[in-house]
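Recall from the previous chapter that SMILES is a line notation for molecules. Here it describes zinc ion.
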Amino acid sequence: MRVMQELLTYLGEHTTDILRDIETLVRLESPSKDAVRINLVQDAISQMLTGMGTVTRHHHELGDVLHVQIAGSGTGRTVLLAHADTVYNVGAWDNLWRLEGDRAFGPGAYDMKAGIVQAIWALKALSANGMTPTCTVDLLVTPDEEIASHAGRPFIESIARGASAVLVLEPPHLDGSLKIARKGVGGYRVNITGKAAHQGTEPENGRNAIVSAAHFISEVVKLQNLELGTTLGPNMIHGGTVMNVVPDSVYLEVDLRVWSQAEAERVDAAIRQIAPLEGTRFEILDGLNRPPMEPTPASLELLTTAQRIANGFGFNPGAARVGGGSDGNFTATIAPTLDGFGAFGAAAHQRNLEHIDVPSLAPRAALIAGMLLNI
Ligand SMILES: [Zn+2]
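With both inputs in hand, we obtain:
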């Protein structure tokens, strides 16, 4: 335990440096799809880890995927999973960086640049104290988590294969809990086609796509199972042209969230069975994007380890199940995955409000370091 306390002491003494590195990443605003800026973040992360591991960059038009590998003493492999993109456009915030009491505000500070920096400092703390992670560490920073991870996903899945553990550097639950389950997330894009006609002179020749859409929506909502947490949100719709024309097309988007793969499959089969009204057609595209992250015996064992280590550092994270997805959803069926190793804070995705809690940076970085000694 004395060894562990040395880590916490070291990180506590370097809180100002940790905060400075977070500020560096935050000031490099990096909205999804802005490859130039995302690559600057990847450069900065590589720089912060200079001399500590092998850096590989995989080029992608949405921004590079960064992989830093740090050797461990044993044969296993632990993945630290992170993303470099944020949800904010450049210039969206009034101030890029602002300190108020114990809080630091900035775009992407909480989701999830502080998590990345905590991991970097966890590795530095180990190295500075002459310690080596028990497993080889693969830090993977992807460019597009906030927009469904089409670029990152193949790298995420391939690096998770054969790993002893995947620790996701997303923020914890608001009460500090680690995340053991996330809903599967996806959605359907639906094109509904009818036949246009003059509403005054030949309404009988029209096939009203909006009426057919209304029928579709009322059937879709019946597929929800709130007890099981399955939700279907027909949350975006547009269609029709002007009031005196029977509309021939409607476009609809339906958000889907499920706790289990079984529920995803039930919904997917049923939604494709909904019959359109006579003379209209449904074209149903997409479906589940991120599979549900369901707890497994191995992921719950990681939780127990994390709780034991955290207790030694004076905090007591619980276990949370949350509705939002992360890249942990992709790894959970491949390797034991535990999410929420990022910074304590609040107001993710809220302009001018998103922030981290500065005093918790050292203990939460120490938790990551402790995990790397105990997996
Ligand atoms: Zn995130």
